[in-house]
Amino acid sequence: MRPDRLQDGAASSRAPVAAGSRAAWVYLAAAIAATGVAIHLAAILGGPAWYAFFGAPPRIVESARSGTWLAPASAAVIAGLMALCAAYALSALRRIRRLPLLRPMLAAMAGVCLLRALILPPLAIGHPELRNAFEFIAAAVWGLAGIGFAVGFRLARTAPAGRRPGDAR
Question: Taking a C-beta distance cutoff of 8 angstroms, is the pair 167, 19 a contact?
């Protein structure tokens, strides 16, 4: 008997661990990106203190203080890019329709996120201002997102038509 079936043939509520754990990585990447969207949009409303708290460059914080367009426009563009990342992760999971260039976009997102995570330690050697908890936590979070996008890249190729990645077989 298959482990995902009960004695009477009814499906068990538990999906196989391997399939579910792969999909969980992609859901994590989508959640991280969606949280980034919320943070960047909230910074527009929160003002200069929010920009400073979340590590925006001094030029952006100053823009928020003086009311120029640079801070809100930058935050809106970044929020849009992060929303795109979340959408591509959901597309890899087949929660939304397949988006164009799904695999190349997921590969690019994985690469950017993993680079963001891996470049901090060598940069922090010569830049003491990068040696703080916020920067290291952000690097770790984006590293996890990078893993999720890489898994999404793989799932987008391997999932059979009509089946969502991570679904029980």
Answer: yes
Cα–Cα dist 46/51, whole Å: 8
**Residues 113/139, Cβ–Cβ less than 8 Å:** no
- Residue from 103, 104, 99, 135 nearest 119 by CA: 135
Sign of CA dihedral 76, 39, 51, 149: negative
pTM exceeding 0.90: no
Within 13 Å of residue 3, how many CA atoms lie on the same side as its CB?
A: 5
Residues 48-80: tens digit of each pLDDT: 999 999 989 999 999 999 999 999 999 999 999
Instruction: Please name the amino acid found at residue 20.
Output: G
Give the residue among 94, 90, 88 at the shortest CA–CA distance from 107.
88
User: Residue 13 and residue 10: Cα distance in Å, rounded?
Assistant: 9
DSSP 3-state of 5: strand
| Residue 109 to residue 129: CA distance in whole angstroms | 26
